[in-house]
Amino acid sequence: MTECREIYLNDSDWKEKLRNLINYEENFIFPIKCSGKYINTILTPQLIISDFSEEKEQIVKNTLKFILENFDAIYENMLKILVKTFKNWDIYDHENNEDYQINIEEDLHKMRYDGNFINTIIINCNEIENEFAYYSFKFEFNYCRFGYDDGVEVVMYKDKVIFWADGNSMEYIYSFKEILESYNNYQL
After folding, report:
1. What is the DSSP letter of 104?
2. How do residues 13-42 score in pLDDT, each as one tens digit?
3. Residue 21 is inside which H or E element, if any?
4. Contacts for 142-149 with beta carbons within 8 Å, 24 or more apart?
5. How far, in Å, CA of 187 to CA of 28, rounded?
6. Model pTM?
7. For the chain, what percent of residues have pLDDT higher than 70?
């Protein structure tokens, strides 16, 4: 595999880059400009497109365009959902060597790793609804006193969190519906 290259929706060689991405000939990152309430930076997550076919090209474009245009709202929705689980957890702040509790979204936001804290996007072309695909982010953050890398996978449809789970495996984008069905009372 070669080093990562950037891929944009308006690239003149979009189809060729997409074909290389699908054939695993190259790694591509998908830059996302963030300028919202919490962050002002450019993220560069690796882009993975699962089960792509040429007839799904527009669905991939629709999904990526939605992510680009709405990332700040997407991020805020992720924090709102995640804070419900982490509320009142004691979190260790490595920079200040002290504990604090998660009570609001800003507390959870402080846990994210600096820099490229969303390092992977997977678009699952098998899970499509109304011309958009379901996708997931690998969101890296640290809530461990011992400093282990950790994170969650957050499965999304447009700007709505569908499912999230602890871990770094990036498998939930493929199994979230089965998991939700097996826990028929599961709610976010």
Report:
1. S
2. 998 898 888 887 788 999 999 888 888 889
3. helix 14-22
4. 142/94, 142/111, 142/113, 143/86, 143/89, 143/91, 143/92, 143/111, 144/92, 145/92, 147/94
5. 34
6. 0.86
7. 83
